[in-house]
Give the backbone structure.
Amino acid sequence: MEIILLKDVENLGFADDIVTVKNGYGRNYLIPKGYAVLATPSAKKVLAEKLKQRAFKEKHIVEEAQKMAEKLKALQIRIPAKVGAGDKLFGSINNQDLAEVLAKEGFEIEKKYIQVIGGNVKRIGKYNAKIRLHRDVIVDLEFEVTPVRDEKAIAEAKAKAAAEAKEKEAKAAAASEKTEGETAAETETAE
């Protein structure tokens, strides 16, 4: 029995495929459940027209996706992240973060279509991601994770270093006054 699948059926085929199955499987399971219809000559003509129209629409969608892919390749993506000791990040960068940065650049791409190569990013540096714009258009996007300079923390560190330097100078000055005073006292007793 020849049938046209209306839905994807595991181990049989995808929607709009014409497949041959045993009569009982087709009549008792696939057709009653709404997974398929009989492949009559008129149904085949309707399917052919449907596939022709879909191919035309699909061509336009693929062209749009390729245009977007060219724009994405031209982007210089930098993701700022807080950095701890060395080049390790506080937390990690994942597809959600990349989707947010792309949204700021004007590209609304769902995070489920973005795959960061190697999993979550945990160090600063350059990385790659695959972005699926269409099942036929997949873009390799290079991005860089850069450290965020926390201005408040830098100012606090500079102030602390300056305070420590003043403290050392004060100790050094006190120590030198003490040694000058001892030297003067020794010279007076010697005379």
